[in-house]
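User: Here's a chain of 749 residues. Predict its fold as tokens.
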Amino acid sequence: MTQFSTAKNFKIRQEQHSCPAPQYQSKFLCMVIFLLSILKVASCLNDNDEVILQLKRYDAEIFYSQKFTSGSALRKIIAISKITPADKAYAYLLLSELYRKLENSDSIFFFGAECIRLSEANTIDSIECRAHIVLSLAYSDQGQYSEALNHGFASRAIAEKKSYYKYAALACIALGKAIGYAGDPNASIHYYNETLKFDEKDHVYKTRARALNNIGDALLDKGECKLAAEYLLEALTLLANDADKQFRVYILENLARSYIGLKNYSLAESYLQNALKLSDSIRFADGKSAVLASLGQLAFLKKDYGNALRRYQSGLLLLEQLGVNRSYCGILNTMGAIHDSLGNMEKASELYLKSYRIAGKLKADVQLIEALTGLASLSEKNKDVKLSLEYQKQLNEHILVQLNKERTLQNFLLETHLLVQKKESETSLLRAQNQLRLRELDAAVAAKWLMLLLIAVLIVLLLFVFWYFLKVRRTSRELAIKNAKIEHQNLVIEQSIHRLKLMQGKMIQQEKQASLGLLTAGIAHELNNPMNFISGGVRILNDLLCTDPSDDLIDERRGQIETNMETIVEGVERCTKIINGLKVFSSPQNHEFLLTNLLQSVHLAIAVIANKVKESRVVTDIQIPSEIFILGNPSQLSQLFINFIDNAIDAMSTTEPHLRRLKISGVCEDDKAVLTISDNGGGIDESITSRIFDPFFTTKPIGKGTGLGLYINYQIIKAHNGGVEINSDKNGTTFKINFHKQIADEQSE
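Assistant: Prediction complete.
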């Protein structure tokens, strides 16, 4: 205004001199006025930017840093004449939040109402949404649950309409708090879970932590301590690096309460000690008083009455500094009960009387009833009948008052449920209407684009049909040629597969025959020893009986004759055992399964490969109970055990001869017979463990192995419905083979 009046005065002075201003002077004057106007607007914009920055800083101080000294600064911002309605509404909101932190109810409701009025007039949805949340929480603190629910639903409706998911989550926290304070923990938990759903769309870890803490608190009220602990632990994890340590104190104290309910006193005390240290570090007296009360309760439950009294006394001193309340009376009653149980009735009476007086002033009926109950009990113990009757009379009166309050609260809770259902219905209807309008708009736009799309598709379709017609004519001949080639290739592939199957069968049989050939020398060597026993025994018998012996001579040589006969019999038995083992191993393949003794089958395999065992200086340790039977093919089982033992001997070639050990053990585990074959060789490289059962895979030098031994073993185990496990390291390899023992048991029955 000053700039415009200056220009006007300049023009008047020119007219007074009756001297017409030149044309260039008029243009210059307009340019100056225009530049000054721009500077003024820019100055206003800069002022507004500065205001916004200040408001955001105060917002962070109140919400995140928990600093509550910005009230006068916010009032100065509101008094600025050039402030915009949006900034003024923002300042009203911050003042409302600030006074809620300072528990000044009159200022909360005044500035909150002003914020909503200004926001509605200027359509500032985000500020209005937050203001409803603040007022909902404030009305809950004051016990005005109907108003709290109205503001909570209003905030939620705005947030859902504008997709403010962060504010929708906070609105659900406010609704859960109001309904929980009204006495319905189940409905409260429902809205806290709604908070978690909204938070998934707009992640704010502190909002989520607050919802989890509130769910845990509600579950503690219901007595579901284990589930409460799970929610509280998740909340504590989210706040691991958060600066709001006061919130962490509350969560730690709630966690301790949950573990007290679970009777895990050691863990509860650990959380309470952490909370105590944290509250001391930030000088958080309110939180410390709650922690001390919980420590006192814990000591009381552990029957450590001296420690309990000390904790409760420390909590009382803090509450006296902060201002006595219902919790103060509750602690006095608990301390009175402890002194009563310790026989100190005079001190108990003093504490009960103090609680009685304070609870009466605070109109704390529950604590008053507890105090009167204690006083009546003490009077009865002191045989003061008159005083006991007086206390009993007052107790009955207050119990009736409390019952009436509970009935009133139940009626209010019913009204609250009806209000909640009504608001939910209105919210659902509004959501449905919004969705319907969006669908109608989408349908109109979609119809327009659909027509254009149909025209385009029709043109493209005609072009495609024409192109396809030409392509079909051109490719029909090519398809016929390709089909002929494919048929020919299929025929060639089928013939190749058939030849591969024949070759595979032949190679498997060749592997068995090759193994049998390698074992022939060992079998011949093994047969030589018993045959030498037989021939030597026969020769000695011939020498003993070559002449006509007399009865006296026979009696004289009877011991030598019997010894030689035993040698001959042992040689025959060893020959028979080796031949039986060789016969089982070399018997033709068939699919007949017989009840087979596991120990005998392993012994037959050892007998067949005994020469290689002896030459390799391998010490065998067989620990298989004789009563284990499995249903299997004896020939295949012999080949299975021989292949495993032969591979184990080869694996121990790098081990010192005097250290080579082969252990074969068998046990019954439930419905399975388990055979374990262990060696102390160099082991199998982890990189090839998964390939050792593949056909033609071998780590032996060229000419030393075909790579079919373990493949054949795997096929035999698979044919017996068994399984195999491998455990290998640098100290050796263990094969664990499972057979289904119950089949054998059923067969034996």
